[in-house]
Amino acid sequence: MSHDNPLQHPEVQVASGRGYLLTFLISTLLMGVSLLLVANHAMAPFGLMLVLSLCAGLAVIVQIYFLMHMDLSEAHIWNTVALVLTIPLFILAIGLTAWMFSTLYERTMVMLPTMHGMAGMVH
């Protein structure tokens, strides 16, 4: 599909200031709610983590839909397919990084002999 006029391209046609403003406002609201919850220690740590994860997930969905215009329309189907195929790689990279840092201490620290073991050597 070729367009002589760049303004007639489907990706340009869906762009709107209203969508960008709406995305900014929703994302700012979600970030503000998250900030207030953390700053006021409003919940137990596990509940707070769940609410923050939910706010972050909602912000991502809003940005994907309103900013990137990801949907199943013919003009955007390949962008959506690329995103869907990228998500497992992203989750795998984050998961492996979290695993690496959670086991970093055990894998890198040299185990020194205990003081009890050293006392036997000093005579």
Structural features:
single chain; 123 residues; mainly alpha; 2 domains; 6 helices
What does this structure look like?
The chain contains six helices and no strands. By secondary structure, it is an all-alpha fold. The protein has two domains: 1-69; 72-123. Helix 2 runs antiparallel to helix 3. The mean pLDDT is 83. Keywords: Membrane, Transmembrane, Transmembrane helix. The chain crosses the membrane at residues 20-39, 46-68, 80-101. This is Cytochrome O ubiquinol oxidase.
Q: How would you briefly describe this protein structure?
A:
This protein has helices spanning 10-13, 17-39, 45-67, 77-102, 104-108, 115-121. It has 123 residues and is mainly α.
Note the total helix count.
6
Report the radius of gyration as a whole number of Å: 25 Å
Any idea what the shape is? flat
Order of helices and strands: HHHHHH
**Number of E-state strands:** 0
Low-pLDDT sequence parts = none
| Total domains | 2
What proportion of the residues form beta strands (DSSP E)? under 5%
**Portion of residues in helices?**
over 70%
Blueprint of the fold:
Elements (H helix, E strand, L loop, with lengths): L9 H4 L3 H23 L5 H23 L9 H26 L1 H5 L6 H7 L2
Keywords: Membrane, Transmembrane, Transmembrane helix
Protein name: Cytochrome O ubiquinol oxidase
